[in-house]
Amino acid sequence: MKNSKGFLISFEGIEGSGKTTISRLIAETLMMDGYEVMTTYEPGGTQIGHKIRDILLSAEHKNMSHMCELFLYNAARAQHLKEIILPALQSGKLVITDRFIDSTVAYQGYGRGIDLSLIRHLTEIVTGGLKPHITILLDIDIELGLKRNRSIKKVDRFELEEIEFYKKVKEGYRRIYEDEPKRIKIVDASQPLEMIIQEVRDIIVRSIC
Ligand code: Z5A
User: What confidence tens digit (pLDDT) does each residue in 101-121 have?
Assistant: First the structure.
C-alpha cells in the first residue's frame, strides 16, 4: 500500500462539471495504483451533514437568507472535518472531497455577494487553516453543465437559480484560481471522461511525490 501521508484533494466547479463522476472514478484508479483513498463530499459526508444538506438543497426553502445559507454550509463542514476528514488525514489516507472551502467563496461570496473577508474569517475558524493540498477545478461552459444536469432531471434549490448567478460563480472560481494558482489546477471538463481521468491522475500523482 502506498502512503500518501495524509493528502487532501478537493474537486470544484459549477454544476454538471462532473465532480461526482470524476472524483469517484479517480478514487478507483488511485486505489488500483495502491493508494489508500477515502472519498467524501460537501455538503454532507456525515449523518448531521446530510440532514443539513437536506435543509440547504430543498426546493421548498426558496426564502433562505444568504447568511443562514453561509452558516449552514460551515456547520456541515465543521462536522465533516471532525468526523471524517481529519481522522482520515491523520491515519495517512488520501482524502478526496467533492466540494470544500472554495465552493463557499464561489457560491456564497461571488454568487450571493457576501463579504469575502467575512467568509475567509469564518472558514479559518471552521477549518483551523486547513486547505486542500491540491484542488481540481473542473472548468465547463455553464450551458453544457446545466444541460448535463437537466438530462438526469436534477432539481434542487440551486437548479432554480438564474443564469446570472452561475456566471458570477464561474467568475468567482476564476478569481480563486488567480489568487492561488499553485494549489488550484484547472482541467477542461468538456473532454471525454477517459482523457479527464488521465489528466487528473497525472496531476495528483505528480503532486503527491
Ligand atoms: N454549495 C454552496 O453553495 N456552498 C458550499 O460551501 C458548498 C456547496 C460545499 C451542492 O449540490 C450544492 O451546494 C451546489 C453548490 C452548493 N450547488 N448546486 N447545484 P450537489 O452536491 O447536489 O451538486 P453539485 O455539487 O453542484 O454537483 P452536480 O450538479 O451533481 O454535478 P457534478 O457532480 O459536477 O456532475 P456529475 O453528477 O458528476 O455529472 C453530471 C452528469 O454529467 C452525469 O450524467 C455524468 O454522467 C455526466 N458527465 C460528467 N462528466 C462528463 C463528461 N466528461 N462527458 C460527458 N458527460 C459527463
Answer: 999 999 999 999 999 999 999
